[in-house]
Amino acid sequence: MNPQLKSIDAFTVIGYQLKANLQEIEEQQLGKKTLHRLLENQSLVQQRVGEEIYLIQLYDMKPNFNPNVDRFTQVIGYKVAEPKEVPAEMIVHTVPSHQYVMATHRGLEAELYKTYDALYGTWMGKQPYQPAGYDFEVWDERYKPDEATNEIDVYVAIR
Questions:
Q1: So what's the pLDDT on residue 8?
Q2: pLDDT tens digits, residue range 66-83?
Q3: Model pLDDT for residues 29-50, shown as the tens digit of each residue
Q4: E strands present in the chain
Q5: Among 156, 152, 121, 157, which residue's Cα sits nearest to residue 31?
Q6: Where are the alpha helices (DSSP H) in 15-123?
Q7: A Pfam family name for this chain (predicted)?
Q8: Cα(8)–Cα(155) distance, rounded to whole angstroms?
Q9: Sequence ranges of the domains in the chain
Q10: How far apart are CA 85 and CA 107, in angstroms?
Q11: Rounded to an integer, what distance in angstroms lies between the CA atom of residue 35 and that of residue 78?
């Protein structure tokens, strides 16, 4: 893993939103169910820019926040040019222009926590940055969650 600083312009996503903690997401397979639902309804998102799927995670910035216990918001959707029509039960979420630390996770999705631990723990512990309350993943043609060749780009908003 080789973290890099990146500035990214604002972008907008149309997709589904859920609020849960990591334990609930895993035990109830909420992420997988939401992804499946998005894929089933992808033709409804007319303004898609590419086929990549974005997983955006929004955290409460409270002391001792623990994503395993504390609920947070996830948005799973497609990047869109301009959100003219929003399909029923979907939402629009705009990610602001911001600076990020980015790293590519390589390996099983079940081991993705290692990349997050490295970015939020090790990397930030050695840098003058703090988390800005959200992060996102980009799932493209390299996204093969159950294979060792899986790759996921992870972006953590920093301030």
A1: 98
A2: 999 999 999 999 999 988
A3: 999 999 999 999 999 998 999 9
A4: 4-8, 11-20, 48-58, 72-80, 91-95, 98-106, 131-139, 151-158
A5: 152
A6: 22-27, 30-40, 112-117
A7: Cass2
A8: 10
A9: 4-158
A10: 36
A11: 11
Give the other-Cβ count within 10 Å of 89's Cβ. 10
Its CATH architecture, for the domain 4-158, is Alpha-Beta Barrel (3.20)
pLDDT of 61: 85
Residue with tokens 């290692």: 114
Structural tokens at position 35: 């992804």
Output the pTM of the full model: 0.96
What is the identity of the amino acid at 68? N
Q: Which tokens is 114 given?
A: 């290692």
Tokens 């990591």 sit on residue: 22
Q: Tell me how far apart the alpha carbons of residues 156 and 62 are, in angstroms, rounded to a whole number.
A: 17
Alpha-carbon dihedral sign for residues 94, 24, 133, 109: negative
pLDDT of residue 151: 98
Question: Which tokens is 43 given?
Answer: 């033709």
The stretches in the chain having pLDDT less than 70 are: none
**Which residue intervals of 4-141 are DSSP H helices?**
22-27, 30-40, 112-117, 124-125
Query: Which residue has 């499946």 as its token pair?
Result: 36
